[in-house]
Structure formats: C-alpha cells, structure tokens
Write a structure and sequence with these properties.
alpha/beta, seven-stranded mixed β-sheet, seven-stranded parallel β-sheet, globular
C-alpha cells in the first residue's frame, strides 16, 4: 500500500476518536488545494475556523451522509469547500490533476478507534483524515479466517460509536484471510450482512464457482490491496460506484397497506467492478463500433451494473478529451430498471435532464427528440424505434452506446433493424456501397433511396457499440454480441455464472429439492360409434380431456394443497408462498375453482389463492372469467392487475395460479414452492423455475413439484446456462440463397411479383388505402397458387418463407450483404408471410365420446437434479435448410387411438353486442394492419400494454360518434369495455402473429 498503492503511513497522533476524524489532515488538504476559499473561511471565522469547519462538516454529514459530502463538499456562509478531489477524465487541466494528487490517503495499522476501550482495527484507510475503509486481516495458519473477522465486526464493534455510524465515517468494512474476502457497508450487530468479495474460482469474468483462483505470485487475496484499494481505484469507486439507495416496499397486512423503508449503501461486488472496468478500458482502447456480451446470472446485481456502465460510458473521454459517445441508450422493458437507473445515476451527477426515460407515458416522438437533442442517457423500449427510425436527424459524426437489458432473439427482429437505421452513421457504408454498385443509385428510381438506406444499415457500424446483458444467451445472441475466438467459436466478453451466484449465496439452487409425479390413466369409449379421426388431433383431444377432467384436477389440487400445508407453510418464518403453473387459461380457471372448493371443504382458514391470466376465459358452460373479476380480498374488494403483486406479497394470500403470466420478470422473494403442470423446455424452463431463486431472510431452500416434465429434460434445459454458453461457429450466410432457390421451385411467385411489391412498399411518402388495396390485389393470386399446393408442400413453403425472413433479419445484423435483390426478396416475403392462409388443422371434440375409467398419480422422483456440466456448453448454428414436415399420423379409428394412449400411460353476448365487436374488429384489422403487424412481432404483454389499448379506444370512439345509440353500451359499462378490449387484443395479436 505504501510502495505501490499511493498511501502514506498513518498514525494516531492527531486522530480525534470522539469526532472520528484527523482534522489537521483535512485542513491541510483544503489549504493546499483551495487557498482562496480557505482565506474566505478564515475571514468569516478567524481563529475558530478549524472548529467551525469540523462543526459544519458534521452537520452536512449528519444531514446528507458522508458519501454526498465527499462528492459535493460543504457550503458555509458563502464558502464552498471540497473535502477531497477526484481524478479528472483527462490530464488537460493541470489544476484538477494537482488537486487530485494532493489528496492525503493514509494506511494505519492497529487503528485505535474508540473512546470507550482499547479495541483496534487491523488496518484503516483514511482520506484527508476521514476514516473510510476498515479491514480485518485473518490468517488460517494462526487458526483464524474471515469468519473470525465477521464476528469481530458483529460482536466487538459497537455500532453506536461515531466511526461506525452508517454513512457517517466508514463506508465499507472488509475482512480478508489467505483465501477469501468479505465486505459489509453497515454494522447492525447480529443483523449485519456480509457479502463475498471474491473473484470467483476461475478468476474475474471467467467460468467458475465461489472463491478465488490460486495466485502463483503472492497471496490469493492480494487483489484486494493490489487493485481494489489502490488510490486510483478507491477514489474511482467513491466517485462513480458507491450509491445510497432508499428502498420502499409496500405490503398488505390484515387488509391494510403498509410501507416499509430501508436505506442501503451499495458497494460494487468484485465482478461488477471488474466488468465495468474491463468494458471501459476496452472502449478507451478500441473506440466505438464493437459489441460485448455479458453473461451474468440472476443474482448478479445486473441493474446496478447497467447503471454504472451507462454513467461511465456517458462521461467517457478519449485521449483528445472528446466524448467517445454522443448518447448512451439503455433498451429495456423493465420499469424497475428505469427507476433504479435514474436513482443510481442521479446520486453521481445531479445535472437536470442527464437521463431521459421514455416510459409508457411518453411517445416515440419523445424518443426521437431525445436522440436528436443528444441527451446523454436515454432509457427506452425497443418497440418505439419502428415508429421514428426515418425521422431521426443525420447521425454523421454521432456515436451511440446501446445497452441491452436481457438480450434475446427480439434483437434480430424488425424493431432491432429499425433501431440500427435510426442510429447508424451510414457514411462509410454508403461509400462502400457506391464502390460496389458504381453510379447505379444515380440512374435508378427514387424509391430505391429507401432500399439503399436499409442496405447500408446492415452489419456492424463504427458509430454503434452494443453492450448486451443476459443470463441465457441463445445462438443468435452469441453471434451478434459475443467475442469470436481464433477457432471460430463465439463466447461472452464477461461471465458471472449461475454456479457462482448459487455458491456465493446470491440465488438459491431451484433444482436441489425436486419432485416429479407421473399420471397414469385409462380412457374408455362412451359411444357405440367408432369414427375414423386424424390421429395426432385425436391424441391432443384425449390428452386435453384427461388434463381438464374434474378427477385429475381434484387429485392434483389435493396433493398441492396438502404439500403446501405440510412443507411450504412452515418455510420463511411462515411467510412462504407458492406458484401453480398451468398449461392454459382454462386450466388456470378450473384449478382456481377447485382450489377454492377444496380449501372450503377442508375448512382451512389459513390458505387463500389468487389467479393471473390475460383477457377473458369462457368455460364450456358459457361462464366468462377475468382475472380482476375472480381476485377479491377477504373484505370483498376487487384486486386489479396492477395491485396483484403487492397483494400477493402481503399476508392474505399464499398461492398464485398462473397461465402464461408471471413466469418471467416476476421478483417475489417469498416465493418458495412451485407446482408445475405444464410442459417446459429450454430457456422457458430456466426462466419459469428461476422465479423461486430469489433470496430472503429466513429462506434457506426451495421446492418444485412437477406433474408434467421429466428430470432429464429439466437438466438439459438448465445445463447450457449453469457455467458458460458458447457458439460453435458463425451462421452460414449462404443458407439464405439456398432458401431462396428452394422457395422459387414452388412456382408460387416470381420476379415480377417482387418488383411490383417493392415499388409500392418503397414509394415516396406514406402508404395510402389505395396502396394497401394494390398490395391486397398483388397477394391474392399468390395465395391461390399456395392453396393449390399439397398439404406437405404448403408446410414446406410456409416454413421456408419463415426461415428466410428469420435468417435474413439475423444475418444482416451481423454482416453487410449489399445484395439489393435479396433485400427486395426479404421485404416481399416478410409481408407474404403475414398474408398466407393459416394451415388449418382439424379440431377434434371427443368430450361426449370418451370417459375416464382409471386414474392414478405416482411419485417418480424426489431429490437433487445435479448440474455437473462442462465449463463451456457449445450451442450449434443450423447447418442446413431442412424443412421436412414431421411425420403425421394417418387417420385412425377412435378405438385404436384410445388403446394407443392407454398403452403409453399405463394405467354471454347478444346479437347487438356481436355487431359492436365485429364492427370494431373489422376497422382495426383493415385500417391498422401494417402498424399492428410491427407490434405483433413482440410479446403479447408488450402488444397488450403498450400498443393495443390506444388503437382500440380510437376506433371505438369513432364508431360511437358515427352511431351513438348503437355503441352507447360499450362506454356505459367499464367492465364490458375492458372485456371486449382484452379479448380483441388476443384475437388481433393471434391473427397477425401467426401469419
């Protein structure tokens, strides 16, 4: 620390234990760096200046906290004094450099901090006389470890001593031994929380578990003093990382809403410090234009990492003292991150308007204005770019850092393409294109200007840097944002693995207590008929019949409720909760009713259940159900969709039944148990089951009871994301040409069709109703040719169209093709894909032809699903354009189908209301088709929350103005209005999504 760390040797000779400060050192720093301000201070107070300084320092610290005072200094009767100086971004300002060098950092051994006893801290780091870092050093050779250091802080350090007051003096407490380091930012006696501050067994940013790698050149834990606590590093952490966060949580207790407030001082964990430092260093060295994939597990503190990276990139300068980035754009769908980012960055920099959050209360125009005006940090959603991509002013000379929260396949869709068109500086790409095409653009039609703009937005751009965060990278994510190794494989830039997060205790291992059940049942015919039916559809119908059969629901409900009472209810100090994952909305409704019936029948007054699903569900008896209509408090009050998470967190409800809701992004630490009655695979399985992994006080384990999946499938789903995920090789871009050739062989469309479409699509100005009519006429004969194909060829053609659209979107994100014909083919096929008729599969209804004759639930597994995987799991890119249709069963007699399945399992609108709905639906799909198609590319939640309600309201109001009497009913009954809107959102989304 003395020879290399930038510290002077400290002693206790001038330390004032009562005030917990070495005042002479603070005065010395101020005098040497702020001579004029100190002279003003002395004019104000004369010989009392030093004591007045101490008094004012303590007043500001008590009011605002030490961190605020270190960053902002103190103000006293017109004098503004800094108590420390931070390193400037560049060395151009000699005065700022000199101030920084004049900081007095001392390292003191056996620091006697107390006025009450002779206790000492092994080592203390002070900044200008203010003690800020405490370190207890332990040695296994003498029989002590970091656990002994923790006990000293917890039991031998009195939190009432001034130096230990939260955010008044010490900002962080470390304890280190020969192998590990831990830290805390607040001493609260036995409630003190220590977090590991280790690199990970594989080294920082690499694959590994808990702990640290062996250090052949010294102590295993020497990184603490050799890198983290050096002068430059510690001052950087104080200036740009440390963050005071006030967290307010609402819970419902006894029917009343209770607010709970807690204040935390956030010190970066080692991997967070490491990833920010490495990203900043790489950008400083290589400039803009690169992509970085950060594979950080749940529990990594991703929101903080993104906040710190956004702030650093926004203020990053090159060697010429110029900003590297014009703006930093954070792309997210999480409101939690919006708020946290705002709070984190405002604690560093109080400049008004530094951050522009384009939330659901703002429009795409606000995003356009923020980009055009050069706002430093913009937080937005991907879905707002398609609306404004043509309206962003020239980006020549502008550079953007794009931080993506939860990078996934949507980054290869049209919204991501429009983001690039909006932000890319196409100057270099246009010059490259001109060399290839010569003067072709000068002799072509005006419509090709738009085509050229599309082409030059492809590939990577020197003015765009991407920083993509995800815990579960897929193939496309790895190739788009990953780092390419010399062997052709793609890897993340930085890793904090699920294994490390589990071993360090930041998340729980959800596969540790896993139980599976197998359903055994026998179906019998209840009709003398023996009709011939499509085999695959009949199998689905029988499986659906069994899964919705009252006896099935009753048996599983009994198992779940009793398991909850016996095990779950005793967990987390009696606060534990459970989620029931169902295969459909109708299943969820039926389960909810069965849970209510069973709980009432048993007289259990300590259990209650909530339900979550979208839209309206109509049961076979015609009864309609909505989420808000079913959820009520004990007092009989309706629980709205927005209130549900808070109410569930309270003490009135213990279980939540879900259907395609709350399976991702739902953060409820009290969730302990999950009952799964739905097939899960891949990333979906990881995301769903990981709802349980959040830690909470008193939460030591989790439990999953699975009726629908086998352990081998769950193990396979988690394996790629336990340590490191990589990709075998780049995609073969020529597959796109092979697919084009395959498509043309069907003789469904030709060059003239593509050319006619392109002239309409890329015409100057906005599309008109006439243009839409022309497009409809253009696609009609193509649809007819398609319908003349055999069922198998229809399947192959449609699959090939989808592959072409998907692969082209992907390929052009990573490389620049400059193939005008291919771009035109893509634009044509993108719209053709939406206009092709749906492949109609025959729906078979067997409810009145079969009966459940035998039913049994058997437990098949109980224990730990171990994840002993290789350090790196390699995903594979597609190697061929295979579009063979999976073999479908031929038509079989019902009796044969039933036997086959048994062998396998062993054992309320009026006519007037219809007019309202048909009119609104017709206007929406016919007038807003193009806009709907863009938004239907995203998830239903985004479509339903961000886009559809406004479209529906506009159309409904215009209908009302035209026919007030006919449409009066829809505005008189809010529930009727909401029901129609929600159901229509689902139907419109499905119509455009499946095209």
């Amino acid at each position: 620390m003395l020879n290399y760390g930038g510290y002077a040797k400290g002693d206790m000779s001038t330390y004032d234990a009562e005030n917990a400060i070495d005042l002479p050192k603070l005065v010395s720093f101020i005098k040497s760096t702020q001579e004029k301000e100190w002279a003003k201070y002395e004019r104000n107070y004369g010989i009392d200046s030093e004591q007045k300084l101490l008094k004012r320092f303590n007043e500001e610290v008590n009011t605002h906290g030490l961190l605020h005072v270190l960053r902002n200094g103190i103000s006293d009767r017109g004098a503004k004094l800094k108590v420390c100086a931070f390193k400037p971004e560049s060395n151009l300002n000699a005065e700022l450099v000199s101030r920084y060098e004049n900081n007095i950092l001392t390292v003191t051994r056996q620091f006697a901090y107390s006025t009450e006893n002779r206790n000492t801290i092994d080592m203390v780091l002070s900044l200008n006389g203010i003690p800020i870092v405490a370190i207890e050093l332990k040695n296994q050779i003498t029989g002590q470890s970091i656990e002994n250091g923790k006990k000293q802080y917890i039991y031998d350090r009195n939190p009432k001593e001034l130096c230990f007051h939260f955010n008044k003096r010490f900002l962080v407490y470390f304890t280190a031994d020969l192998f590990e380091v831990s830290m805390a930012t607040k001493l609260s006696g036995k409630d003190t929380t220590f977090l590991p501050f280790n690199q990970g067994s594989g080294g920082a940013g690499n694959v590994g578990g808990a702990g640290n790698p062996e250090n052949t050149n010294g102590y295993t834990t020497s990184y603490l003093w050799e890198s983290v606590l050096t002068k430059d590093s510690l001052m950087n952490i104080i200036q740009r990382f440390l963050n005071v966060r006030v967290e307010e949580t609402k819970i419902t207790k006894n029917g009343k809403e209770v607010k709970k407030t807690s204040t935390k001082l956030i010190f970066p964990r080692y991997h967070q410090l490491d990833v920010v430092t490495k990203l900043v260093d790489d950008v400083k060295k290589n400039g803009s234009g690169n992509s970085y994939l950060i594979q950080h597990s749940a529990g990594s503190g991703k929101s903080n990492s993104i906040g710190w990276i956004a702030y650093r990139l926004a203020s990053l300068h090159d060697e010429a003292d110029k900003n590297i980035f014009t703006s930093v754009i954070v792309v997210t769908d999480r409101k939690v991150l919006d708020n946290q980012l705002q709070d984190t960055i405002s604690s560093f920099d109080h400049k008004f308007g530094l951050i522009e959050t384009i939330d659901d209360k703002k429009t795409s125009k606000d995003l356009k204005d923020a980009i055009n005006s050069g706002k430093k940090i913009i937080v937005t959603t991907l879905q707002k770019f398609p609306v404004i991509y043509e309206e962003v002013e020239s980006n020549h000379g502008k550079r953007f850092a794009v931080i993506i929260d939860e990078a996934h396949s949507s980054q290869t869709g049209r919204s991501a393409q429009k983001l690039k068109i909006a932000l890319a500086d196409n100057k270099d790409a246009l010059e490259e294109y001109a060399k290839i095409e010569g003067d072709v653009e000068n002799s072509t039609d005006d419509f090709e200007d738009k085509l050229v703009k599309e082409l030059t937005s492809h590939g990577r751009h020197k003015n765009l840097s991407f920083f993509a965060f995800t815990a579960t990278p897929k193939q496309k994510t790895l190739e788009m944002f990953g780092k390419r190794y010399t062997d052709g494989t793609f890897h993340p830039f930085h890793i904090y693995s699920m294994k490390q997060a589990i071993e360090e205790g930041f998340i729980l291992d959800v596969l540790k207590n896993y139980m599976t059940y197998k359903t055994c049942y026998k179906i019998a015919k209840s009709t003398p008929d023996n009709p011939e039916l499509p085999e695959s559809e009949a199998r689905k119908a029988i499986a659906r019949y069994e899964s919705l059969h009252p006896y099935n629901l009753q048996q599983k409900t009994a198992v779940m409720v009793e398991q909850f009472r016996e095990v779950t209810s005793k967990k987390i100090n009696g606060q534990a909760k459970a989620m029931i994952v169902t295969p459909s909305r109708l299943h969820a409704v039926r389960y909810y009713n069965e849970f209510k019936r069973y709980i009432k029948h048993k007289g259990y007054n300590d259990l209650d259940v909530l339900i979550a699903f979208s839209g309206t569900v109509t049961d076979t008896d015609g009864t309609e159900y909505t989420e808000s209509g079913m959820n009520k408090t004990k007092a009989g009050n309706k629980i709205s969709e927005k209130q549900l998470p808070e109410v569930f967190h309270g003490d009135e409800f213990n279980m939540l039944i879900v259907a395609e809701k709350y399976q991702t992004g739902f953060d409820e630490p009290l969730l302990h148990t999950m009952f799964v009655d739905k097939k899960l695979s891949g990333v979906k399985a990881v995301q769903t089951l990981s709802r349980l992994n959040r830690t909470a006080k008193g939460k030591n384990d989790t439990f999953i009871l699975d009726f629908a999946n086998e352990t081998i499938d769950i193990q396979a789903a988690f394996a790629p994301y336990y340590k490191e995920t990589a990709l075998d090789e780049e995609i073969n871009v020529n597959l796109i040409y092979d697919t084009k050739v395959l498509l043309r062989k069907f003789n469904v469309y030709g060059d003239s069709d593509v050319e006619k479409f392109i002239k309409i699509h890329y015409k100057s100005g906005k599309q008109t109703d006439t243009d839409l009519g022309k497009l409809t006429s253009l696609f009609r004969p193509i649809q007819d040719y398609y319908l003349e194909l055999s069922d198998e060829d229809q399947f192959k053609f449609k699959r090939s169209v989808r592959n072409f659209v998907k692969w082209y979107s992907y390929i052009t994100q990573i490389t620049r093709m400059f193939d005008r014909d291919l771009q035109m083919e893509y634009d044509f096929l993108y719209f053709l894909n939406k206009s092709l008729p749906s492949n109609s599969s025959e729906r078979v209804d067997l409810d009145d032809k079969i009966k459940l004759e035998y039913y049994k639930l058997d437990k098949t597994f109980e224990g730990n699903i171990a994840l002993e995987t290789p350090d790196t799991v390699i995903l594979e890119n597609p190697k061929s354009i295979d579009v063979e249709k999976p073999k479908e069963g031929k038509d079989e007699l019902l009796e044969v189908i039933i036997q086959s399945i048994n062998d396998r399992f062993n054992g309320i609108f009026t006519d007037g209301d219809k007019v309202i709905i048909e009119t609104i639906y017709g206007r929406i799909v016919n007038n807003d088709g193009e806009r709907i198609a863009k938004y239907a590319e995203d998830s239903f939640e985004i479509f339903n929350d961000s886009f559809f309600p406004k479209v529906f309201d506009e159309v409904a109001r215009s209908c009302f103005l035209e026919q007030t009497k006919a449409f009066k009913k829809i505005f008189e009954n809010k529930e009727f209005y909401n029901t129609i809107q929600q159901e229509m959102a689902r139907q419109v989304y499905r119509k455009f999504k499946n095209r």
